[in-house]
Each structure stands twice: as structure tokens, then as C-alpha cells.
Amino acid sequence: MVTIADVAKLAGVSKATASRAFSRPEIVSPDTALRVHSAAEKLGFVANNAARLLAGGRSGILALVVPTLDNSYFAPIIAGAQSRADAAGYQLTVVVHPLESAAEIPSFERLRRQVDGLIVIAPRGSDDFIESALGSTPTVLVDREIEGTPSVIADSAAAFGRLVQGLAEAGHQRIVYIGGPAGSWQDGQRTRAVQDAAASAGVRLAVVGPHASTFAAGIEASDAVRAEDPSAVVPYATALGLGVQFAYLSAGDQPPLVSSERAIVQALGHDDVPAIDADGQQLGSTAAEMLLTRISTPDAPPERKRLDVELELGGLRDLTGSDIGTR
Description:
Mean pLDDT: 89
Order of helices and strands: HHHHEHEHEHEEHEHEHEHEHEHEE
Strand order of the largest sheet: 2-1-3-4-5-11
Structural class: alpha/beta
CATH superfamily of the largest domain: Response regulator
Radius of gyration: 24 Å
Strand content: 15-25%
CATH topology of the largest domain: Rossmann fold
């Protein structure tokens, strides 16, 4: 039987380097990786990743936990995490767990016993509940920070604050923020950011919500938005904003300016609409990388990372029609 030692000898590298060429190719030079894989092909060697992991007491499975599948925001996060996990020879499974009630604990504990680590998106449960549910399983939180637990967030709150500042500079004196799901950690961050920005700019900002991050919830929110008579609306999620615009247009009314995300703005050809875009794939990939590091070095201090979120004011004009530029 051909072994990794045989591959290493033919490739002219150490056994450890040959092993890394299969398990962690990103830390091996491209030339070395090519020699190892060429040697493996000549010898008919197939790396048995599952056996390698099991021998080390691991399952080879990572879990990405989301609170719902209704929010399209999670899709690129899943894609980014899966790509990084696959490159490291791990299988990624996606599981729905809101992590809000004690009724979830038995099934969540079963999940923990079956995986090597967790990437968790849990926006609403209390800090104490989340910490208790995670136990000692290697974990990285996404879009939430809890002291002592590794985490990575898209710093959308800062972008939302800059957006409100930009709207104020364009002359918008009545702005509505449509809040996200009740208890959402990110919504709390964004609410404080937009309120602080509005207060600093001296404009009126009304908060409408909480609301689910769905198109239907945006339609439901439209009456409360309309009551504030805003010239600009900043929704927690794109789907909320689209629902509000649909409700206005269905009633035969022109909607206020509603911020969105780049793909929607480009598809509709609205070059004067500001767009906020978090890089979901980068978020997922970063979380998976942090988790793999956590699994290999469990005693390392927990990391916290904040990724910049892009804001495009685009062709946003002030209320006199003058272009205020881009950011």
C-alpha cells in the first residue's frame, strides 16, 4: 500500500510537508504542493482525510448554525465558510437553530457532539444563554460579540451611521430607520449608530420596528413609515426596504429615498440610491479560518475581528439637485 511517506520521498519533501499539502495547502508553496500532488498521482495515492481526522479524535465536520433560512443575507456567508472548510478537508453542514429557548438545547447538544467546531449566527438569545449552549465546543460567532468567545462581525453599524450622515449632508431632515428583528444584536448596534449620527447632524430620525428581515414585514411597516413622512428611509435589511417601496407604489404614491444594496441598485438602474454592502463570503471565510485555528490551537486567546462594510453614496444628490459625491 502506498503511504504518505512514499509520496513525500518521491516529491523530495518531509512527511509533514506532504501531509500539509493535502490538509492545509494554503500554507505550502505552490511549487511544493504541485510536486506532492504530482507524486501522489504517479503512485496512485489518495489522501484519506476522514481517516486522518478520525485518528486524531475528530469527525471532520464543521457546523454553521443560522437562526432561519428566510434571510438571504446568510447565503454568501455559508458559501464563504464552505469554500474555506472544503479547502481544509472539512465537511460543512448548515443547521437552523435560533438559540433562543431552552427547548433547543437537547438537539443542539447532539449537534455539538457530532462536530469538531461551530460557526454560530445567533442574533437574539441572551449572552448567558448562548455561552451556556456553546459549552466548550470550539466556536466562532458571526455578527455578534460576547466577551471570551471568538467572533467576526461585518461592521455595518459604522456604515449605517455614515449613511445617515451622508443623507443629512444632502438635506434630508426627516429620516426613518426600519429596525430589524426584536433582540437582534446587530440591530442594536445599527440603531445606536444611526441615532448618534442623526443627533450629531441635527436631523430628525424615527425608529420604526422591530421587524423581521422580510419583504412581507416591509409591507407591514409601510404605514408606520408613511406616518413619519420621511424624505429618506434606511432599512435594517434590503427586503424590508423593498417591501416599503412596493407598498407605496401599490398605493400609487412615490416612495421616499430608500437605501438598498448594490445588486438591487444596479438592477433597477437607480444610480442616485445609496448602497450598503457587507461582503458575506469574506465574513464566512474569515469565520471558518478562525474556527480552524481555534480547533488546532484551543488554548489561544479568543480573537475578535471587525470587517469593513462598504458604503456607496453613488450619485446621491442633495434636495436642490446637486451631486454630493461618493464615499
